[in-house]
Amino acid sequence: MENYISGTDGDMYVVQAPWGDLLQVCRKSDVTEELLVQTEKVLLYKADMAAKKLVEVNGLHDHVLFLGRSQSQCLSAEAYPQLKKNCVYFTDDEIYVSHYKNNRRDIGILNLGNDSTEEIVSQLWCNWPNPIWITPNLTSMNANS
Description:
KIB1-4 beta-propeller domain-containing protein; KIB1-4_b-propeller
């Protein structure tokens, strides 16, 4: 099941937070003249089920968010100290990638505190296929050893 919707206002994702809240994530991107997509901002909203409305969330504090077509998830930065807290790790979701596979990819880390982005991997190594987040099942890995 896909966890995002692509629309004119940006891509929307639904993510279960570790503390129990359901988050709606809006990823705002810009398309350049060369048809390159660049993530510019990520907005977070908590679903308030009782009031039946979305409430804007001001950052992830001690958590990190992974966004992508394959899977989106929120994790504790304390449990994964190698990750940068209050940051969003993203991969491009665009279907157009199959038509423009040699173009620069929209893969990086966005800091929710100041909206700055940084590259995760060299563009040379990620032109095809679409990037995905892989979540290893540590229980299965330990059971098989």
